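Trying the structure run again after the queue cleared.
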Amino acid sequence: MDLEEAKGFRERCTQCAAVSWGLTDEGKYYCTSCHNVTERSKEVISTEAIPNTKIQAINRGLKRKRKLDKGWDWYVCEGFQHILYQQAEALKTLGVGPELKDEVLHNFWKRYLQKSKQAYCKNPVYRKKATVLEDNPSHSDWDSEPELLSDFSYPSFVGSGAESQSDVHPRKPFPISKGSQSETASVCSGSLDGVEYSRQKEKGIVKMTVPTTLAFCYLSLLWQRETIALSDLLRFVEENHIPYINAFQHFPEEMKLYGRDKGIFAVESWPNYEDIYKKIIEVARFLDLPRFPDITEDCYLHPNILCLKYLMEVNLPDEMHSFTCQLVKMAGIGEVDFLTFDPIAKMARTVKYDVQAVAVIVIVLKVLFLLDDNLEWSLSAIAEKYNEENKEDKPWFDFRKWYQVMKKSFDEEKQKWEEARAKYMWKSEKPLYHSSIDRSVAQKRREMVVNLQKQFSTLVDSTPTVEKKSPSSFQFNWTEEDTDKTCFHGHSLQGVLKKKGQSLTTKNSLYWLSTQKFCKSYCKHVTTYEESNFSLSYQFVLNLFSFLLRIKTSILHEEVSLIEKRLFKTKYSKTKKKSSRSRKVRK
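Done. Tokens:
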């Protein structure tokens, strides 16, 4: 139809001298031989006089749109690369150095692609599927281009700003494959290998998932020794500062997602601390990463610094920091070799730095106040009486008053958190559909849902979206100027201490172990936690810190028990000997 409409235009092309013209969507003439577009356009006086021209223009538009709807030919690993790129950019806005994205994370990802044989190797797994390149015949064999996904994929981790424009080679389009693979992909998934990837279960290969991207981010943060612990990273994800839920909606428009892609990139749950922790070790071992940089005393992840941070957050006295430092030294958990992550060691494990720090604080509270629902209230009565009689002096720390203040703040913060989770909009702005055929139906449904939400929000005079919090290292803030909430940072611990010669010691001489007997080695967990077996004070302290880190209470209880095991080795060895003797007597 375009050629028939352009038959009246008989001028020769200025580029190739041919007389073969077509019409663009804008009505301009273009040469069908060399695709040169002229400034001349066809003049149509009235579309009413020639009704077919309007239909023809619409048909041309639909054809072009249909071609665009097909999108790029892309692989699943490119989708994960894009998510990692967005997460790295988000971390950069949170104050992390640019080296994390440009150097550390880039190298980790490059190593993963190499280990999983997806790129940077002689025989990549996708070599057979993309041997014929339409756009660039010189790249007919992928072996000639070792940096496969680094050059072809979008976006690239290397370079940013002016440097990326001048020094780095311009990006090449991703190789377009011919054959049945593209046809299958267009029916079952937007990505070329979506179907195959969802079925992949190769032993020894760590399969990339959306939660695994957080493992890559944390390994990069740990390598750089940044001031973000794992619990902070997951909280920033929860607060939507780091892309995770519906991260695929940031993909370029040309990267079409449907079918099997939905199961790969759509996430319908919040990241779990224990799951991500296991993935961190799994990824580090798969990549054969060397020993990480040392965690020294001046590093943020050292327990002495983290303990100070969490003491401030839960409004405990500053004087407690000296006790936490002593306990860290006695338990030997502040040593460089203990804290530094070494994936290639026989027992590859990384310290749960944040969980360990709050566990130390819990033990110090037990040392000072026993937390048996008895002694802490007796000491509180003494402190309350002293503070009433000596109002001008430095106040003594009152555990009962601290409990009341923290309980109120904790309940308020937890309620806000639960409401935010309940109101969270899981549906993405960019809807996913099962096949390319269902796209129009999915879009119509999405539009209908959005319109209904707008109408409902107008009726109830509220918006369904949750207000985004500004990123902060602290969830609780305490200042001396705040008259509504008592700040205990400057309070003294004199009420729980007594002089013994030239030094001070605790009035409390008792201590109870959180775990009397540990589970056997073949058991999945170290110990069990039953709330009914413990005092209410201990339960409150564990619940407070567990909420702070967004972890299960049993995980914190387990960490407390493990540190106690290091502190009271003789106690546990005696119980072990007693149990072995009793077995011999029974025999």
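The radius of gyration is 32 Å. Worth checking whether this holds up in the mutant runs.
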